[in-house]
Amino acid sequence: MEKRVTFKGWLLPFLLIAPQIIISGVFFFYPAGQAIWQSLFIPDPFGLSMRYVGLGNFEYLLSDPYYRQSFVTTALFSTLVTLVSMVPALFLAVLADRLLRGAGAYRTLLIWPYAVAPAVAGVLWLFMFNTRVGVISWYLGKLGYDWNHVLNGGEAMGLVVVASSWGRISYNFLFFFAALQAVPRSVIEAAAIDGARFWRRFFTIVLPLLSPTTFFLLVVNIVYAFFETFGVIHTITSGGPQQSTTILVYKVFSDGFVGQDLGSSAAQSVILLVVVGLLTVVQFKVIEKRVHY
Amino acid sequence: MARERTGMVERRGAGLWLTHLGMIAGVLVIFFPIWLAFVASTVTQSEIVRPPMPLWPGDEFLANYSKALLSGVNVPVATMLVNSFVMAMGIAIGKIVISLLSAFAIVYFRFPGRNVFFWLIFLTLMLPVEVRIVPTYEVIAGFGMLNSYSGLIFPLIASATATFLFRQFFLTVPDELAEAARVDGARPMRFFIDILLPMSRTNIAALFVILFIYGWNQYLWPLLITTDPEMNTIVMGIKQMFPSGDDVADWPVIMATSILAMIPPVIVVVSMQKLFVRGLVDSEK
């Protein structure tokens, strides 16, 4: 789409667009270019010179069992976060949609956790499951279950998944609720007249009508799990135990800043860049679809 | 979204109460972590380290919060709050200003390289700061911007979402307005300030809510570039309050800090709920 009416001159538009272009250039394109460039080199141990290795960093990464493991961890983590944040949200949205009154009040209450930073959410959940003072871990102990996410990789994964999903439930709830409110009443009532019970109506009519929203949220939540959960992982597990919660973004950080392995970290950045690119394309396709519904 | 709700398929009687019960249970479960943090911020350390901790607030509220705000662990939490506020406002305002200007240029002018610029901006949509941390860190270090507000703010305003939002909105503004302004001999900037800006008020406000929270909740970037505790933001500062090694964390103060860290974004979200929902839905479109 283009404007028919435009203003004349070219100096002014250059000045107007300059701040964004300069900031993007300095803090975005240059660093992104650096990442690609650095991924082709290995710095010597003293950081004095760089040795060109072509795609060596990538070859090394792809044969590195830790890096492959990190891919698997990320896939597991993002699948779980997506499920744990979407299913309860949909359930609550369905309940709220059935209410004639009070849905707004519940919405206000449910919106809260969205505002809580992932890193703060991490601290809250860490506190509840802390092996020494945590309330829930203490009660689990009373029930005979010995909770220790510091040693048990599965429990660590469960904890970071729940802590990451918690705030997302609010977000997904808002979208599901809005979509449910937009489902035409007449369709549902027609089904009710035909004798379809609530859950039958839900699975055969409402859920298919929600599919554009569901698909959209699926993509958005995967992007979230990939890139915005660093705070949760860093506060709760720092990637442990034995790297069982080291997702890809966390590995870029730990290899680049903690391990000082710049070539490998840069190569990981480039791989992630490709992943983001693919996800963005999918996201745009989804959004295009969404508009047509 | 007003629609006729005749009640034919809505539940009444027992079903209605079950629905309310389900909602209340959901809200309670969702709220429990926040409640527990609040309780922990009002009791003494010894009540926490001998589990199970109480589930009802104690009377140490003032003591814990004033200790957190005025002395903290490494640095007073009040300082971190100020840093977070400056960062969040800087990111929100900075992004809105540069994107308003560039969207105006892209929509209302034809100039050489316009499409190239458009695609350059579009590309920045794709790469979150988490992915390019090492080289971006080097740029900031090269400029001597470590431990500074500009170092906290600038790398995070290089993103295109806001530009796209304003572009979409400007495209829906009727052409007659620009036509009239041109006939009246108004300069482009007059048109921008007198007509376009007032029309964009709601969009600006909605975007502000989203961007303020985005800026306030940043974690990784402040963690990397603020080595001086005086420059820590509150969201990343909480983790720094945990002792290394086997010492016991000062839980009441840490939990008071967590509560303080969530108050500003929660106030923004709850008080501007309508705008927030709108901004959310818009910015994902």
UniProtKB/TrEMBL annotation, chain A:
Domain of life, source organism: Bacteria
Principal cellular location given in the protein's record: membrane
Transmembrane segments: 12-30, 71-96, 108-128, 156-180, 201-227, 266-287
Intracellular or extracellular location(s): Cell inner membrane; Cell membrane
Cellular component GO terms, alphabetical: plasma membrane
Annotated ABC transmembrane type-1 domain residues: 71-283
Membrane topology recorded in Swiss-Prot or TrEMBL: Multi-pass membrane protein
Function of the protein: Part of the ABC transporter complex UgpBAEC involved in sn-glycerol-3-phosphate (G3P) import. Probably responsible for the translocation of the substrate across the membrane.
The protein's name in its UniProt record: sn-glycerol-3-phosphate transport system permease protein UgpA
Organism (species): Meridianimarinicoccus aquatilis
